[in-house]
Amino acid sequence: MTDRTAVAGGPADPSQPSASPVVRGLLLALGWLCVGLGALGAVLPVMPTTPFLLVAAWAFARSSRRLRAWLYGHPRFGAALRAWHEHGAIPRRGKVLSIVGMSLSFAWVLHRAEQPWLPVVVGLTLLCVAAFILTRPEPPPRSAAAATAAQPAE
Predict the structure, then answer these.
(1) 10 φ, ψ to 5°?
(2) How far is CA 140 from the centre of its chain?
(3) Which of 13, 18, 71, 117 is placed for a possible disulfide with 24 were both Cys, Cβ 3.0 to 4.6 Å?
(4) CA 102 – CA 114 distance, rounded (Å)
């Protein structure tokens, strides 16, 4: 797939930020809410990170090019967003953490559920999500030139 990066480490996005101040404000609020939820997901094992950051990237793309570039260039979150946007890929570490988190969540539901149908519904849902995650490709390895450029000079 071709590299579509254009804006300070972020993918090219031809869409223009919203002209309406009300819509722009709502999108900015949604973007920041999702960044906050994504940051919580980075430290809480039962909460996802990347889906919230994908929504934040979408909202920022329509409200603030600067915030979108910041998010795609973020040292903690940017690489996963770029991998998804450019390749539809999920890093192996993300896959493992997702499956572990879903397994722990399912174990908790099994332990706490009072209705016998609840673990079945939750289990089938998590199984579908796990299948989707596991069938996504992994990001391509960084090229030697990119790896060399990313290392600090001595």
Answers:
(1) -115, 160
(2) 17
(3) 18
(4) 19
Sequence spans of domains, the chain = 10-88, 89-140
Tokens of 121: 């519904």
SS3 131: helix
Helix, strand or coil, per DSSP, at residue 11: strand
Greatest alpha-carbon span in the chain = 62
CA torsion, ordered 35, 77, 98, 43, to nearest 10 deg:
-60
* Residue written as token pair 């329509």: 62
pLDDT tens per residue, range 67-93: 999 999 999 888 889 998 899 999 898
Given a contact cutoff of 8 angstroms between Cβ atoms, the answer to whether 60 and 67 are in contact is yes
- 13-38 confidence digits (pLDDT tens): 445 666 689 999 999 999 999 999 99
Q: What are phi and psi of 116, to 5 degrees?
A: -70, -20
Please return the burial class of 120, using the count of CB atoms within 10 Å of its CB with bins 0-12, 13-18 and 19+: exposed
* Amino acid in position 77: F
Phi, psi of 111 (to 5 degrees): -70, -40
